[in-house]
Specification:
globular; 99 residues; Rhodanese-like_dom; Rhodanese-like domain-containing protein; single chain; Oxidized Rhodanese, domain 1; Rhodanese-like_dom_sf; alpha/beta; 18% strand
Length: 99
């Protein structure tokens, strides 16, 4: 499984790179702040929401600390998606968030 740190992801965003972020936390957690532009699909909904995820582009998967996003990465990889787990999750995120 590919991984990226929150700092590395933030550098990509700051450099203007197109990044596709999927936040797999629960709604209550997302209500406390989400990375602008990130798509919210709770971990329990990932398998039933594959039609909402573009298989032609890479995705960065984030959760609170990195565990649930790793599980989501496994599910998505098994279904042929190019995904990277964001280690440290939102607990390590120093970038902008929206509410």
């Amino acid at each position: 499984m590919k991984t990226i740190t929150t700092d590395e992801l933030l550098k990509k965003i700051d450099a203007g790179e197109q990044v596709n972020i999927i936040d797999v936390r629960e709604q209550e957690e997302v209500d406390a702040g989400i990375i602008p532009g990130a798509k919210h699909i709770a971990l329990g909904q990932v398998e039933t929401s594959l039609d909402q995820i573009d298989p032609s582009v890479p995705h960065y998967i984030i959760c609170k600390a990195g565990g649930r996003s790793a599980m989501a990465c496994e599910i998505l990889e098994e279904n042929g998606y190019d995904v990277t787990n964001v280690t440290g999750g939102m607990m390590a995120w120093d970038g902008e968030v929206q509410f």
